[in-house]
Amino acid sequence: MFGEKCTRCGKHVGKKHEFCSSCGLDLKNKGDDTDYGLLGKNDMNDFDFNLPRGLNMLLKPLMKELTKQMGELDKEIRREGDKNPGRAARSNFSISFGTPGGKPIRIDNMGEQRARQVAPQREKRILKLPKVSEDKLKKIKKLKKGEPNTNVRRLSDRIIYEISLPGVEYIDDINISNLENVIEVRAFLEELVYEKNIEISMPLINYSFEDEILVLEFGLR
């Protein structure tokens, strides 16, 4: 899969690669492993500050050392990104300077984001609805039917139905079915079954039962 190792950093590189993807070494020029800084081998000749010759020659070595230090900083940031893949490491920075009456000089080191921290996706909660036994459902035709009193409240982010079920003590005696655009509620007593059909297209997000009151919460889309 890999052709050889980089002579500078030891990382594997492909045979067709011209540069090492880890340290940027020029693989074609294997005989020269000198670190020439960010601007390359000819960076000394690339600097021209339009200054007197003495000052120009003085600044060139300083600029070469500066670019070399910037390159070392970039490598260190990249190594930290490799050690901590869960963190996003950036190595983007630039330096600008100039002389009076001269054109500003800008040195850029545009790195790339080594790792992206992916936000965990929130799992969709499946609401388990209460169900009665099949035997109790079969007896529904023999029972008297009644429609319970219902109170509806609208909040900023949901609609709440409060259904009064006198005589019903346990959630096990309540059957809730989520049909297409209809919530069907049935609550069983010995000789009576409460029936309530709620025609609504909003999703049922929660329910509770306490003190003979069934509360259904529907979320706004």
Q: Mind telling me which CATH architecture of the largest domain this is?
A: Sandwich
Total helices: the number is 3
Number of domains: 2
**CATH class of the largest domain, please?**
Mainly Beta
Evaluate the radius of gyration: 37 Å
Distance between the termini: 51 Å
The major β-sheet equals:
4 strands, mixed
**Percentage of residues in strands:** 25-35%
Characterize the overall form: rod-shaped
Order of helices and strands: EEHHEEHEEEEEEEE
Number of strands: 12
Q: Structural class of the secondary elements?
A: alpha+beta
CATH topology label of the largest domain: Immunoglobulin-like
Subunit organisation of the chains: single chain
Low-pLDDT windows of residues: 35-47, 110-117
Task: Describe the strand arrangement of the main beta sheet, using strand numbers.
Answer: 5-10-9-8
Helix share, percent: 10-25%
Average pLDDT: 75
Task: Please describe what this structure looks like.
With 221 residues, the protein is an alpha+beta fold. The two termini are 51 Å apart. The protein is rod-shaped, with a radius of gyration of 37 Å. It has helices at residues 43-46, 53-83, 134-138, and strands at residues 4-5, 12-13, 93-97, 105-109, 144-146, 150-154, 158-164, 174-179, 182-188, 192-199, 204-210, 213-219.
Any chance you could write out the topology, listing elements then pairs?
Layout: E1 4-5, E2 12-13, H1 43-46, H2 53-83, E3 93-97, E4 105-109, H3 134-138, E5 144-146, E6 150-154, E7 158-164, E8 174-179, E9 182-188, E10 192-199, E11 204-210, E12 213-219
Parallel strand pairs: 5-10
Antiparallel strand pairs: 1-2, 3-4, 6-7, 7-12, 8-9, 9-10, 11-12
